[in-house]
Design a protein that fits this description.
Blueprint: H1 2-15, H2 31-36, H3 41-64, H4 74-96, H5 98-104, H6 115-123, H7 130-160, E1 162-163, E2 166-167, H8 182-219
Antiparallel strand pairs: 1-2
Helix pairs in contact: 1-7, 3-4, 3-7, 4-5, 4-6, 7-8
Amino acid sequence: MIEEGKKNQNAQEFLKGLWESNPVFVAVLGMCPVLAVTNTAINSLAMGLATTFVLLGSSILVSTFRSIIPKQVRITAYIIIIATFVTVVDFALAAFTPLIHKELGAFIALIVVNCLILGRQEAFASKHPVGVSILDALGMSMGFTFALLCIGIPREILGNGSIFNIPLFGPDFEPWVVMILPPGGFFMLGFLLLGFNWYRVKKERRSIILDKDLRAVNHG
């Protein structure tokens, strides 16, 4: 029973970032890259994977050394750790995928100040063991990547008529140029936030109704 409860808890830590605590659709964190680099699916995926690497690596180090990092300099230490992994990502993208590195530009360096990453170090990794911190980092980063793709894929389809640079429509397709421009990011994010919150509110209301029905049955 104890092992089963621990497995369920670990699963919850991993899955919470995908839905109920999604960093973009619920916490509304990291809006700068969400709006800036999601004009294509490949850029969205690259930024998501870069953020995953940084969040996972920094969470492991912060959790490992949480007992020896002085409280007075903990934020400075977290930023140094995060900046180290961001530098690794920056050089790796420049070496292996220079075109994507050029597309993402300064937004790779801005991962250092992404509220999602620093927030998870302060709120979670610094207070939990390595294993649970890894699950939290993977869940949150996958939720962030999922959100980027939810925005980037429709924008590329509507704005370029392609997905991952693969053409989907014939020559008669008229691209919605606005979707690959900055306003397209705001439009798509707004629609997704509207749909996400509508579903969440509907689910909460359904749960309340079910609770009332169960109470009525029990009292009856």
